[in-house]
Write a structure and sequence with these properties.
Layout (H helix, E strand, L loop, with lengths): L30 H6 L10 H18 L6 E3 L3 H12 L3 E6 L2 H12 L3 E6 L8 H9 L5 E5 L1 E2 L4 E2 L2 H10 L4 E5 L18 E5 L11 E5 L1 H9 L9 H8 L10 H17 L1 H26 L2 E2 L10 E5 L6 H10 L5 E2 L8 E5 L6 H16 L1
Parallel strand pairs: 2-3, 2-4, 4-7, 7-8
Antiparallel strand pairs: 1-9, 5-6, 8-9, 10-11, 11-13, 12-13
Helix pairs in contact: 2-9, 3-4, 5-6, 10-12
The protein binds pyridoxal-5'-phosphate.
The site of pyridoxal-5'-phosphate has 12 residues, from helix 3.
Length: 375
């Protein structure tokens, strides 16, 4: 299936034309998906919601590449990061930190009263499996947290290989944030033996913000049963109990579920491999564009070759063109891109080539960005 360059349904509200909004989350949402949210409410205990949740279930499993149930949470992704550590850690977690979101994982543990250490590499770097294996040899840890695609730096961690060394090191559960990689690049929950995987609605799934999805294998559910810290709202056992009835533990964001119903049909029609290929092509186009522009504009890619995320590219900018000024100049041309995240605000700009964007739209954006960077 080829994606239409422009969305055929008229926007439900006054909106700029599709294809100008390139944040690395939230991403632009198709107009028919937005329309779906204007349907009337239904009871969250009853046949209507059960039919809806039953339609979502197999498609979410296809996205996660798992036979495990995928739970839907009315929360942002951070809630399910917190769920990941609260339900699984027995004694101590090791948090792989290479940017702002992986830093947040550590904070989610510490703020939940969980002992956690960081294994830090400088922002812009990845974690090598050897380094992770060495850190686990001391035997102190029963959980490892990792962010697959660090949205603050554009770095993609070698997840499949990290999973191998984690499992070789003993009874350790791997808790994975795939918020900006799920549905953008290859993520194989079952084949890579990822114990717990979470993602959010507003990145490469191209849904509105406000939903998050997660799945855990048997080891994770066994840990959850023993956990005294799992709380209520993010208790995986609660999610599982209601999942069996095609319901959710609490009142879900029904409107967002309507949106997910429409968007997951689009994703299913495109196919996961095709969706990954489209993102890879857009990512590679952005990298070669940035490298070509480098000498002339003083720009460079923040992430090293071989470890670049499929959904977001971070482009270092010279001091004469701070990230905030570049983003403003792009705004004046009708495009939305991101500055650097947090302390890296003016060091870079970030282009989110994720969701339902096409190569044509990306080329138009990159042409505008070239004008700004070489002006
Ligand atoms: C956006 C993002 C988050 C946080 O998601 P929220 O939905 O804002 O809670 C976490 N991790 C990564 C890698 C992200 O890109």
């Amino acid at each position: 299936m080829t994606l239409a360059t422009t969305d055929t349904a008229a926007p439900p509200v006054k909106a700029p034309p599709f294809g100008k909004f390139f944040l690395p989350g939230p991403t632009e949402v198709r107009h028919d998906v937005l329309h779906a949210m204007t349907q009337q409410m239904i009871a969250h205990r009853g046949k209507g919601i059960e039919d809806l949740m039953a339609r979502l279930a197999p498609r979410l499993q296809q996205v996660f590449r798992t036979t495990r149930p995928v739970y839907t949470s009315t929360s942002s992704a951070t809630g399910l990061m917190e769920a990941g550590v609260r339900n699984t850690v027995r004694e101590r977690a090791l948090c792989l930190v290479n940017g702002s979101f992986s830093e947040r994982f550590h904070k989610a543990a510490v703020n939940s009263g969980i002992a956690a250490d960081k294994l830090e590499v400088p922002y812009g770097q990845y974690h090598s499996p050897d380094m992770v294996g060495d850190a686990l040899r001391k035997g102190k840890y029963d959980v490892v947290t990792v962010v697959h695609s660090e949205t603050s730096t554009g770095v993609l961690n070698p997840l499949a290989d990290i999973a191998k060394v984690v499992h070789e090191a003993g009874d350790i559960v791997l808790v994975v944030d795939t918020v900006s990689s799920m549905a953008a690049g290859q993520v194989e929950m079952d084949a890579w033996e990822l114990d717990y995987v979470l993602t959010g609605s507003q990145k490469a799934l191209a849904l509105p913000a406000g939903l998050a999805f997660c799945a855990g294998n048997d080891r994770v559910m066994a840990r959850a049963r023993q956990s005294t810290r799992r709380g209520l709202y993010f208790d995986l056992l609660e999610f599982d109990e209601y999942y069996k009835k095609n319901q959710s533990p609490n009142t879900p964001a029904v409107s967002l579920l309507y949106a997910a119903d429409v968007q997951l049909a689009h994703i299913e029609a495109e196919g996961m491999e095709a969706r990954w290929a489209r993102h890879t092509a857009m990512a590679e186009r952005t990298w070669s564009w940035a490298e070509e522009l480098g000498e002339k504009a003083g720009t460079s890619l923040y992430a090293p070759a071989g470890y670049r995320a499929p959904g977001v590219t971070c482009i270092k900018v010279p001091a004469s063109k701070p990230g905030s000024a570049v983003a403003s100049a792009m705004k004046a041309k009708g495009f939305v891109i991101a500055t650097g995240y947090g302390k890296l605000k003016d060091d870079m700009v970030r282009v989110g080539h994720m969701g339902d964007h096409t190569m044509e739209e990306l080329d138009t954006l990159l042409e505008a960005l070239r004008e700004v960077l070489t002006a």
